[in-house]
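Researcher: Good morning. I'm working through a list of sequences from a screen, and I'd like to move beyond sequence-only analysis. For each chain I'm collecting a predicted structure so we can compare shapes side by side. This is the next one on the list. No need for commentary yet; just the structure.
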Amino acid sequence: MADFGSNQAENEAEPIKAVQSEYTELALKYINNGLTFVSNNTDIVPRDANGNVIVKDGSYIVIETNSFNINNVVALKVLDTAFSYFKFPVSVNTNLIDVDTNFSVENNIDPIFARYKPRYPDSQNGLGAIPNSNDTPVGFNFEETVAGNSQVSRNRYTVSTAIKESGADLRFRVKIEYRCDSGRRLITTTEDGIQVVVDNEAVQVAGFTVFKEGPNYPLNREYIKFPDQPNMSQYEIRDAFLDVVIPNSSFEIGDEFQLGGRAFPADDVTDFSAYSEQSYWVITDASKNVNVWNQELPPETDGAS
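Model: Good morning. Structure tokens for this chain:
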């Protein structure tokens, strides 16, 4: 009696073997390497309508393999998962560090340095008028603190206890950039009593001084005078400079210094103005070789700039 079931199985396997024989040489390298290309090829790996692999005698089941190139650095980052910040059980180091807490914030603050400049909030071009006066300088506007110690009194540098007790002499460096907007004019009267304005070499000058005043020192508007300034032509611009040292012995606690100025002759309505941004008044310790920003300079530099 014939084995019908066995013959039927062999008959069903024959087409698969024929196909596999046809593709064996072509697919051999893929089968050995287990590539997806082959495992998804239904001519080599039969699948049913749902995509399931049909396993029969002589069928190939290709399992896909994966390989990755992992360098040493990446491997160490993945494998080194040890928590290295703390170790248990906890151990205490009893060797205490001797920390020097003997410091003072005041050691980093210069009690003398200050840099001021004029402030003209109502001016669109940064110019402020120099008062007209024939004989008396008028207090100058230097009210804005640019760096260093602020002002106790408006427009003034005040000698504090720390400044006096430091024993330091004070160095004043001042630059006032100013301009003349009036022509050189001289008002004269003719024999007929008519006043005329003559444009000639008449005097038209601005002058500057340092005021000093204190509890035991009356106001002195010409405590220090700037070098004499030349006659000015209309729209001419000049710089007035002062670099002077004031001995510690010449001032006391509470004494105040201020800059003063005047334009003359006043009756000719001379028109002088000072520039805010280009002017400064700098006070430093005269024993220090520093610039006008209180920055230390090399020994061969005199700190004039």
